[in-house]
User: Which sequence fits this backbone?
């Protein structure tokens, strides 16, 4: 069986980068789910910071330099895409947006995509829904239902409940992308809704003795 081709695009600016770390975790999880389905996978990762000058040249001239052209070609041939951006000013980074500005909008038409982001505060997590998801909807990609956001507190010890929550989101999103890549329906999202009565009970102050 031919291996599934998974392209990963990460727009982290530092080395090491939490954005790259999240991208790697997602790619590993997708690979695990595809292996469980009997499908080997080939992963190719592009660090957009290494292509920043090429992206700027393409924006000005309309022609991609060879390295950028190869990256876009890899993404076009892939069976699925993981796209991860840091969040600045409550939206995707300029580098991330500039890259997709130079990608022909037909390249991602119908392609399964998993979107993810990192940020300095959990309040930035909404950027995935109000900025990143609409971008890929415009590009006519098939976006996995679960988007993954990682704030600094998500990178804790293995016994930290927040870290466990990140691992669960990564696994659920990876399962959805691998299902889309193999032509299956994504697994249903887990019911994480807490009843209002339970939320209210948690806020009640216990009486003084």
Assistant:
């Amino acid at each position: 069986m031919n291996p599934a081709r998974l392209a990963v695009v990460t727009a982290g600016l530092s080395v090491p980068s939490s954005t790259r770390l999240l991208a790697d975790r997602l790619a590993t999880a997708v690979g695990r789910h595809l292996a469980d389905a009997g499908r080997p996978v080939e992963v190719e990762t592009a660090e957009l910071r290494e292509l920043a000058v090429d992206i700027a040249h393409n924006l000005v001239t309309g022609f991609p330099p060879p390295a950028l052209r190869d990256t876009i070609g890899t993404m076009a041939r892939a069976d699925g895409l993981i796209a991860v951006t840091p969040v600045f000013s409550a939206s995707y980074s300029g580098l991330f947006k500039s890259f997709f500005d130079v990608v022909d909008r037909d390249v991602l038409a119908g392609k399964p995509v998993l979107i993810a982001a990192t940020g300095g505060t959990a309040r930035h997590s909404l950027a995935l829904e109000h900025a990143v998801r609409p971008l890929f909807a415009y590009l006519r990609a098939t976006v996995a239902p679960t988007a993954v956001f990682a704030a600094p507190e998500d990178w804790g010890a293995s016994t930290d409940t927040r870290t466990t929550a990140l691992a669960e989101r990564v696994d659920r999103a990876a399962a959805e992308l691998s299902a889309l890549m193999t032509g299956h329906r994504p697994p249903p999202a887990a019911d994480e809704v807490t009843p209002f009565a339970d939320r209210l009970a948690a806020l009640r102050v216990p009486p003084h003795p």
